[in-house]
Amino acid sequence: MENVELIWSDPRAEVHRFVVGPLDNNVYVVRCRASGVAALIDAANEPERLLRVARDLGVTSVLTTHGHWDHVGAVPQVRAAGLEVWVRVEDAEMLDGYDHLLDDDAGHAVGELSLRTIHTPGHTPGSISFALEGTPLLFTGDTLFPGGPGNTSFERGDFATIIDSIERRIFAVYGDDTIIWPGHGAPSTIAVERPHLAEWVARGW
């Protein structure tokens, strides 16, 4: 189905990933097996393909990790198709329309599942990560990648802020077995990344 990969499943949940657009953005679909309801993380690009996948998997809402153009390119089309788009207030003006604002440290219901919202500013002021409760999965957008934090050289980015977000909101909370699924590229784990925090601070990016 549209080169969509099943990256995680258990009796309650299944998580799918596919890659879109010129910057190879990861798009994730978190689906509740009991209800068939799903949420899509980042309506990034390729709206026709994205909407076909959304229909096939029962997507009813779109969660936005941050407002950069490559993560929100399909927002107008998914809203026109009736899907509700959620974003943090700090990045809301970067989108071409949205429906709801995401609170920090709240459970976003996906059928019988819950995605915990974690405000992780630094890449943008409204960057947010999502933890699928009851699993080791953490979707970090462009906040945390294998090998370090996301780029903070963009307008409104801040290196000290992203380091603080990673240290306090991710490393201090989530265990070594947590799997990091970023906005681009391959996954990693907290166990692999946590020991390198001081190195990232020292190099300054």
Report on this structure.
This protein is of the alpha/beta class and 205 residues long. It has one domain: Metallo-beta-lactamase, Chain A. The protein contains six helices and 15 strands. The protein has a seven-stranded mixed β-sheet. A hairpin with a 5-residue loop joins strand 14 and strand 15. The longest helix has 13 residues. The radius of gyration is 16 Å and the shape is globular. The mean pLDDT is 97.
Task: Give the helix tally.
Answer: 6
CATH superfamily: Ribonuclease Z/Hydroxyacylglutathione hydrolase-like
As a percent range, the share of strand residues is 25-35%
Tell me the span between the first and last alpha carbons. 37 Å
Q: How many strands in all?
A: 15
Counting helices, strands and paired strands, the structural category is alpha/beta
Instruction: Give the domain tally.
Output: 1
Question: Architecture, CATH level 2?
Answer: 4-Layer Sandwich
Mean pLDDT: 97
The first-level CATH class is given as: Alpha Beta
Residues in helix, %: 10-25%
List the helices and strands and how they pair.
Blueprint: E1 5-9, E2 13-20, E3 25-32, E4 38-41, H1 47-57, E5 59-63, H2 69-72, H3 75-80, E6 84-87, E7 100-101, E8 107-110, E9 113-119, E10 128-132, E11 137-141, E12 144-145, E13 148-149, H4 159-171, E14 179-182, E15 188-189, H5 190-193, H6 197-203
Parallel strand pairs: 4-5, 5-6, 6-7, 11-14
Antiparallel strand pairs: 1-2, 2-3, 3-4, 8-9, 9-10, 10-11, 12-13, 14-15
List the defining traits of the structure above.
205 residues; alpha/beta; Metallo-beta-lactamase, Chain A; seven-stranded mixed β-sheet; globular
